[in-house]
Amino acid sequence: MTARLNGAQPYVLALFRVVVGLLFACHGAASLFGVLGGATGGNGGTIATGTWPGWYAAVIQLVCGGLVLLGLGTRAAALVASGSMAYAYFDVHQGMALWPIQNGGEASAMFCWAFFLLVFTGSGAFGVDRLLSRRGESAERPAPERTPVAA
Q1: Which of 22, 94, 114, 149 has the fewest beta carbons under 10 Å from its own?
Q2: H-state helical runs in the chain
Q3: Would you tell me how many other CB atoms lie within 10 Å of the CB of residue 30?
Q4: pTM of the entire predicted model
């Protein structure tokens, strides 16, 4: 059973990456464009442009979430996203209470650790990163030498 699960690992990792990236990008889109309930979760409001740190966090969420979703620059995008969520947790939530369940920081904590995992695992199967690395490998490989056949 372990062998079967290990064989599925790149595909499950890719699914994990897509779901986490999509959810993160949705947070950014909601805050920046007022879609999906908006920044406040119900009235379609947006965050004012340039507002620190909310607007910048929303841009990071949209851009990094989209990059992770596609599997393009996954490790770098996941590192930035993880750091932004660590900042959100410790700056916004930690002051209210110790535990995430008490201070409303569950989403920040979960996103932080999910993206941190992706920093070390990469994009998994079906990521644009993987397609680009395969294309680069095939372009770098010289054509096999062929011995001419004398007729």
Answers
A1: 149
A2: 2-33, 54-70, 74-88, 100-103, 106-121, 128-140
A3: 23
A4: 0.82
